[in-house]
Design goal:
- By secondary structure, this protein is α/β, with parallel strands linked by helices.
- The protein has two domains: 5-147, Glucose Oxidase, domain 1; 159-363, 3-Layer(aba) Sandwich (Rossmann fold), CATH 3.40.50.
- It is built from eleven helices and 19 strands.
- The chain has helices at residues 40-44, 99-105, 116-126, 140-147, 159-162, 188-196, 210-214, 234-245, 255-263, 303-308, 352-363; strands spanning 5-10, 15-22, 26-34, 52-56, 60-61, 80-82, 85-86, 109-112, 129-134, 168-170, 177-183, 199-205, 220-223, 250-253, 268-284, 290-301, 312-318, 324-329, 334-337.
- The strands form three sheets. The protein has a ten-stranded mixed β-sheet, with helices on both faces.
- Helix 8 packs across helix 9 (255-263).
- The N and C termini lie far apart (65 Å).
- Pfam families: CPSase_sm_chain (PF00988), GATase (PF00117).
- Its EC number is 6.3.5.5.
- It catalyses: hydrogencarbonate + L-glutamine + 2 ATP + H2O = carbamoyl phosphate + L-glutamate + 2 ADP + phosphate + 2 H(+); L-glutamine + H2O = L-glutamate + NH4(+).
- Belongs to the CarA family.
- Keywords: Amino-acid biosynthesis, Arginine biosynthesis, ATP-binding, Glutamine amidotransferase, Ligase, Nucleotide-binding, Pyrimidine biosynthesis.
């Protein structure tokens, strides 16, 4: 049976042709790439990728299927995927469905049989940009009109759209450590890591008032990862400012790291093409040790602002480009990192950060 054709059109006019995977249709978003050699399901279900077209640099996608336990959220919120070689069959015995079935059931249109090496080199050179994938439009002019409707990621607030609608609990309700987790697009494995260390978590929607979270009497606060531009999340920055005023321990990851920075006057900026993969080298400036980390972000905090801030200590740097990868406040018990210490898939080099958070809570 012949495969249905699909087209990928980039904002700068570059066109790639391939074959349809997932659902017949048209999907647009910001195109980015992830260099991980495994873990496609975790990537596709990470809320931080909301509204993005994800190019996977590893050649074979779909060959081990989909399994419920590896989902990082209730379902994918990505716009689309681009792959080289796509497998509709899978070999893992405990997989519950094929990736094709997963994409179809979630309404995701993707494209396969694309020269992803060429595409990734183009994105690395030109930077992240909007793109669109379609199996419906043959005419590029019509497809361009659809692409023009796709909003830019810069200036986009997405966390309130992907966060939980109602609070929920994770962990042992009899624990003496209670952490209020502000959900900007939280990954399940973060909550598992906290619960494994004896934390009782209550996960709150992104726009929850601090007074409502304080009514639960938490010992500390966690600021989660999530999608979108932190510079336009005024409501979240105000929330973090109020949390910091409580002088309780605070730990932020990725978007949570950016919001912590914004709350103390450090600006954020959109990166050229971001950091996305499971092999990013980070140096801990306090220990001198390096970590191989999992990352997914298209925004970062301004290094000069961090260096000049009297109450900020830079704790981690990215060894590829010397960007700031971690900070802590000198005047309050708060710290954050621009990567994923829950590290799944990939090495567990950064799990100690959860232990540091527990120590901060116990010693506060």
């Amino acid at each position: 049976m012949d495969k249905q054709k699909a087209t990928l059109l980039l904002e700068d006019g570059t066109v790639f042709y391939g074959t349809l995977i997932g659902k017949h249709g048209t999907n647009g978003g910001e195109i980015c790439f992830n260099t991980g050699m495994t873990g496609y399901q975790e990537i596709y279900t990470d809320p931080s990728y909301t509204g993005q077209i994800v190019v996977t640099t590893t050649s074979h996608i779909g060959n081990y299927g989909v399994i419920d336990s590896e989902a990082e959220s209730d379902g994918p919120t990505i716009a689309s995927i681009v792959v080289n070689s796509f497998s509709e069959i899978y070999s893992r015995l405990d997989a519950t469905q094929s990736l094709q079935e997963f994409l179809e059931s979630n309404g995701i249109t993707g494209i396969a049989d694309v020269d992803t090496r060429k595409l990734v080199r183009h994105i690395r050179s030109k930077g992240a940009m909007n793109a669109i994938i379609s199996s419906e439009f043959d005419n590029l002019e019509d497809l361009q009109k659809e692409l023009d409707k796709v909003p830019d990621m810069a200036g986009l607030e997405l966390s309130s759209k992907v966060c939980t609608k109602e609070p929920y609990y994770v962990g042992d309700e009899n624990s003496t450590i209670k952490v209020a987790c502000v959900d900007y697009g939280i990954k399940r494995n973060i909550l598992r890591n906290l619960a494994a260390r004896g934390v009782y978590c209550k996960v709150f929607p992104a726009k929850t008032a601090v007074a409502d979270m304080e009514a639960w009497q938490p010992n500390a606060y966690f600021l989660s990862n999530g999608p979108g531009d932190p510079a336009v999340m005024d409501y979240a920055v105000e929330t973090v400012k109020e949390i910091l005023a409580l002088n309780k321990p605070v730990f932020g990851i990725c978007l949570g790291h950016q919001l912590l920075a914004e709350a103390v006057g450090i600006k954020t900026y959109k990166m050229h093409h971001g950091h996305r993969g499971i092999n990013h080298p980070i140096k801990n400036l306090n220990t001198g040790k390096s970590e191989i980390t999992s990352q997914n972000h298209g925004f970062n905090i301004v290094r000069e602002d961090s260096e000049n801030h009297p109450d900020i200590e830079i704790t981690h740097v990215h060894l590829n480009d010397n960007t700031v990868a971690g900070i802590k406040l000198k005047d309050r018990p708060a710290f954050s990192v621009q990567y994923h210490p829950e590290s799944a898939p990939g090495p567990h080099d950064s799990r100690y950060l959860f232990d540091d958070f527990i120590s901060l809570i116990n010693n506060n």
